[in-house]
Amino acid sequence: MLQVANAHMSRQGMPLAGLFEWHFISQNGLPVRASNGLELAMRPLPKNHYYDLVFIPSLHYRGWQPFQRFLESQAVVRDWLIGQWSHGAWLCANCTGTFLLADTGLLDNKMATTTWWLEGHFRERFPQVNLQMRPLVTESERLVCGGAHATFLLQAVHVLNKFAGKAIAMQCARSMLIDLTQTTQTPLQPLIADKTHNDPLIQRAQKWLEEHLAEQVRMTDLAQKLAVSERTLIRRFNKVLEQSPLTYLQNLRIDTARALLEAGDLSTERIAQYVGYNDISSFSRLFRERVGFTPGTYRARFQLPRAD
Predict the structure, then answer these.
(1) Residues 63, 109, 88, CA angle at the centre, nearest 5°?
(2) How far is it, in rounded angstroms, from Cα 122 to Cα 240?
(3) I need a surface site. Which of 39, 132, 178, 182 has the fewest CB within 10 A?
(4) Model pTM?
């Protein structure tokens, strides 16, 4: 992105001193091997050099426990990041990199976002951060956060707007075909998070709801089938999945409808019936409330291309 920006600025007569320059840096300056095997040459963390912008990339995730151990080993980097920000640098991070930024404490009491699939861990580790999962990119006091990995493109446009102006930022976005109309994560986030648990009652309830998706389900009937009280069922759902059984069922239905809209040509009416809604207006209203688009708009935007 910075190379493209430099190309546009050079064509417009920007002197060499006004172009972007960047360094790849690591704690010890030794080469770093990325998860895909590519080896990157690095510079050590400079002690007396301050950047205009520091970008923390998304970090390879091998599981929550190894990731926590990695974060706990980054004290030197955290202190360096705090020093950079204190001297006026912008700090940007996306996806798993937002955890390293949040570990500095700089995001406390500020708005931030992160990747949707680690939202629970982020909230638990950083309760002082004002985490917002709707926006793709957030900015607060020179701290810019992005959601899942691909948001680095939108972050780059955001930063270019700050450092090079709107015209250059827009030229770069057009050159690289970056969709600037997508500003929220909501349409892309699954409503049913993949939350692992060992509660046999909730596992049975989830399986039953999946198998009876299109039926008119009453929670009292579900509780009877599981041989528990409705109150116990609701309490266990809220404890394990942090939502009520009814909300879970609605989210399950909407996620199923999204998959059908993306992959097939069934009418909205047929899809609504397939996931248990005979009233198309109620289905459309709930879909828009949960996803942010009407079913028709969602299909037009996210339907998978046909493989001819």
Answers:
(1) 90
(2) 17
(3) 39
(4) 0.70
